Sequence to fold (246 residues):
Amino acid sequence: MIGLSCLRCRARFDEPRLFTGCPRCRAQGVAVNLSVEYDLSPLAGVTRETFGSASRGLWRFDSLLPVASRPVSLGEGATPLVHLERLGRRLGLPRLYAKDETQNPTWSYKDRLCSTAVTHAVEIGARVITISSTGNHGASTAAYAARAGLPCVIFTLASVPETMKTLMQAYGAAVVACPTSESRWTLMREGVERFGWYPTSGFVAPPVGSNPWGVEGYKTIAYEIAEDLGWAAPDAIVVPSAAPDP
Ligand SMILES: [Zn+2]
Fold:
């Protein structure tokens, strides 16, 4: 990893605790996230053997992840690519596949982000993990914080269903129900800026996206798809998405 770079102005930063997007663009009133940049020269001549079988799942791709320490892992990644033959026939797409991310440890793709981000948190000496979430991302963060032996504080909304609150608490997190989205970001920001808590989600308005180190974990979905297709890129990938948390 060389550092973080801005997706818009390309400025480069090497602070290990820059979670609020590009400071230069923000000064111009534009909210932009940062992205991890790598020196890929050690991977020149990469073959399928480069990613051997020493580790399993997401961490097989550790040479393409922004952390060097021992992974905080619950066995995430290596999810099945399921051939949807019947649906594909109906749509005229004989090679239609679904990447089944529910097979991750806490049942969502968020585990890829949390495994990578919490490993980074441990690497830089964070003592508490925090997140603002109404669901999967909170549960996943709580699980990985527990795996790392770190306390976790989740700011959620009072309106969140009890099922989700219980799931987050079951992994040992302190769940704080807030009246509004703004109030939970304000509280989380206090934790991050005053006490050095490590965030696995964004907490600024306007939003800049998630923790840039953690986002790297998501990229392993693409590596696995390419590998399962015989190291070929698919024609198209369709991803369900949503607006930032309300
Ligand atoms: Zn910028």
Summary: Residues 212-228 form the longest helix (17 residues). The beta strands are 3-6, 12-13, 34-37, 81-83, 97-99, 129-132, 152-157, 174-178, 198-199. The two ends are 33 Å apart (CA to CA). The pocket of zinc ion is lined by residues 6, 8-9, 11, 22, 24-25, 32 (CB under 6 Å).
